[in-house]
Design goal:
14 strands; 3-stranded antiparallel β-sheet; alpha/beta; 13% strand; 17 helices; single chain
């Protein structure tokens, strides 16, 4: 049996189902696909595409208050923080000899033969965002600078582990970091679970950096990876390497198509793949589920939780101690109300109160959005946003 998993909330079910079906096309009955669901299971959602569904309580996290730990994280932070703990649970539950994580927006096209062979001697297998130096400015900006210097050298849309040798030590180290420091916080040098892995080659000698161009092909590395299809329908990268999986990153934000049009405007095969992926998402309920809020998005009274409320909470140990159950008890919500009421009327808006300010912070964390905004926002609004970005 080959063990795979992905980590999502319910809004990403259409993507995760597409991934699961692609793995079954490649591996048949050998594929065991786990859905790590950082959300509540719902009766109106079909989870039958997966062999099992794990939820956060299943992970037995070593925390005093599970509510408090969940509350500290945005949805992306939460879905990434649980990944090493899901690895641990799958290894434990199934006595698996190897486990592979793949992002929900990836699609498998052929068997991962190189990884299967490598894990026998390298219990940690990573894929870099890029493996060839950029020659042109835009490739450097989108690949080396944005992909690597900002978000991390390795793309954790893929990670393969074996629980032997340094594999167990790596997993323990990564899990400890993700338990306390899995945040999207650029000033602290953090980008969820991913930036931590930049340090992994410093600590673990037996890991493998897999540079095969058929792994983790994505818009950020199109400048040196060319896709083709032979008469039998098989997909090849750079003419002679099989495409193992493609990463449709940024699809919901519109950046995937934007980057395709920027870096491969005339590559019809890539655009056909994009159209196929959209059709798959729609078939699996993207219109119904894609924007559905998650179980952890609201206080008990139904009011939405702003990102700044989570940041304030996690950065103040006293608040965590006083309000260890921020979802099921009203204490922290009432504290926020008191703080807002005590703020002078002429005080500047609290962090998170300004829509434009929130947009600027989001663009700082996801700079590729600048491309889309420059094409779609009115010039006046663009100017206001630029002023915010430059503050």
């Amino acid at each position: 049996m080959e063990y795979f998993f992905t980590s999502i909330n319910n809004a990403y079910i259409p993507k995760a189902v597409t991934l699961a079906q692609s793995l079954r096309r490649v591996y048949g009955e050998e594929a065991h696909v786990t859905c790590m669901l950082s959300d509540a299971r719902r009766e109106d959602i079909d989870y039958s595409a997966f062999d099992e569904v794990l939820t956060i309580p299943d992970l037995d996290l070593p925390v005093e208050s599970l509510e408090a730990w969940i509350f500290k994280h945005t949805v992306v932070e939460l879905c990434t923080a649980v990944k090493p703990w899901a690895f641990k649970k799958i290894f434990q539950r199934h006595d698996a000899r190897r486990v592979i994580y793949m992002d929900p927006d990836t699609v498998a096209y052929s068997r991962l033969e190189e990884v299967e062979a490598a894990l026998a001697t390298h219990p940690v297998v990573l894929t870099p965002h890029v493996t060839v130096p950029a020659q042109h400015t835009q490739d450097l900006l989108d690949g080396e600078m944005l992909g690597c210097l900002r978000h991390g050298v390795f793309n954790l849309g893929f990670l393969a582990l074996a629980p032997v040798g340094e594999g167990a030590a790596f997993l323990d180290w990564w899990a400890a970091r993700c338990l306390d420091w899995c945040y999207d916080d650029s000033p602290k040098g953090l980008f969820t679970d991913q930036r931590w892995i930049d340090l992994a080659p410093c600590f673990f000698q037996d890991l493998l950096v897999l540079r095969h161009p058929g792994y983790n092909m994505a818009t950020w590395n199109l400048y040196y990876r060319k896709l083709s299809r032979d008469t039998q329908g098989r997909l090849w990268v750079n003419g002679d390497q099989p495409l193992r999986f493609f990463h449709f990153s940024g699809h919901d934000l519109g950046t995937h198509l934007l980057m395709l049009n920027k870096h491969a405007p005339d590559e019809r095969l890539l655009h056909e793949m994009n159209e196929w992926y959209i059709a798959q998402e729609n078939e699996h309920g993207h219109e119904r589920l894609g924007r559905r809020p998650g179980a952890h998005d609201f206080f008990q009274d139904g009011s939405p939780i702003a990102r700044q409320a989570r940041v304030t909470y996690r950065e103040n140990a006293d608040l965590i101690q006083r309000y260890p159950r921020p979802y099921s008890e009203p204490g922290y919500r009432e504290w926020l109300d008191r703080e807002a009421a005590a703020r002078p009327a002429d005080a500047p808006p609290a962090a998170g109160a300004s829509v434009l300010g929130a947009a600027a912070r989001y663009v700082r964390r996801h700079p590729r959005l600048n491309l889309w905004l420059n094409r779609n926002l009115p010039e006046g609004l663009q100017a206001k946003l630029r002023r915010r970005l430059n503050k």
